[in-house]
Amino acid sequence: MTILDIQGVSKSFGGIKALSNVSFTVDEGSIFGLMGANGAGKTTLFGVIAGQIKPNTGSVAFRKQVITGKRPDQICRIGISRTFQIVRPFAGISVLDNVIVSALYGAAANNTHAEAREAGLAALEAVGLADAASQMAGELTLSGQKRLEIARALATGAELVLLDEVMAGLTPTEIERMVETLSELRHSRNLTFMLVEHVMGALMQLSDRILALDHGVPIAIGTPTEIAENEEVLKVYFG
Ligand SMILES: Nc1ncnc2c1ncn2[C@@H]1O[C@H](COP(=O)(O)OP(=O)(O)O)[C@@H](O)[C@H]1O
Ligand SMILES: [Mg+2]
């Protein structure tokens, strides 16, 4: 079943066409990868889906409900949450308090502090950060901060989670663990992920389908194998 339906989305910043007529659907329970060089429009697309950026044309529908034009907090409560490429936790409060804030903000009906705390602890557990709960968020390693970003997205109760370069800057071992965490999460929490990643091995391994963007233009969509063999993709990536 389709969870996300993007039709004809375009977005310009001044003279730059960040997205040109982008259309695709994402199946519930799948991992959908986005690839493209720096400036291809990947983060802009996440911004459009999560409501931070208004597209010039086109529509975004989540479970058949059109969400284009809704505010980020409304979209979050409907069930979509994203991480940011540049991690931005509340550095001066604990790891646990960070996820409690997200749980209070999000889609799940965590009305009381106790419920939010429980949802927050479960999210930390899910990403392997339970032991760091009482640490200040600013004291985490980069890998820890990336995991906290994911935990914050999970704590909102989101069903669709957009992950923006959560493996960037990690060591090969940390990347391997992150791949394991994401494939576990997908099944244990029945989540749908969209993944922006320059770590090609991880993107290919995790994704069911991949959309390749070149300067905002969709050039190919398909399984990892199809993308790896696509002539347009090979031309853009390897000249
Ligand atoms: N807020 C903005 N204002 C102006 N230009 C922007 C803004 N956000 C993105 N862009 C431009 O849009 C293009 C796509 O950017 P982005 O979506 O961040 O690409 P990616 O995430 O694929 O690297 C780039 O040329 C970038 O400079
Ligand atoms: Mg980006």
CATH-derived topology: Rossmann fold
Runs in which pLDDT lies below 50 for 5 or more consecutive residues are: none
Straight-line distance between termini: 37 Å
CATH superfamily: P-loop containing nucleotide triphosphate hydrolases
Shape category = globular
* Number of self-contained structural domains: 1
State the total count of DSSP E strands.
10
Derived structural class: alpha/beta
Sketch the major β-sheet: 6 strands, mixed
Rg (C-alpha, Å): 17 Å
CATH domain class name? Alpha Beta
Topology as a string of helices (H) and strands (E): EEEHEEHEHHHEHEHEEHH
Count of runs of 4 or more consecutive helical residues: 9
List the helices and strands and how they pair.
Elements: E1 2-13, E2 16-27, E3 31-35, H1 42-50, E4 57-62, E5 65-66, H2 72-78, E6 80-82, H3 95-105, H4 113-126, H5 142-155, E7 160-164, H6 172-188, E8 192-196, H7 200-206, E9 209-214, E10 217-222, H8 224-229, H9 231-238
Parallel strand pairs: 3-8, 3-9, 6-7, 7-8
Antiparallel strand pairs: 1-2, 1-4, 4-5, 9-10
Helix pairs in contact: 3-4, 3-5, 4-5
Residues 13, 16, 18, 36, 38-44 line the site of adenosine-5'-diphosphate (ADP).
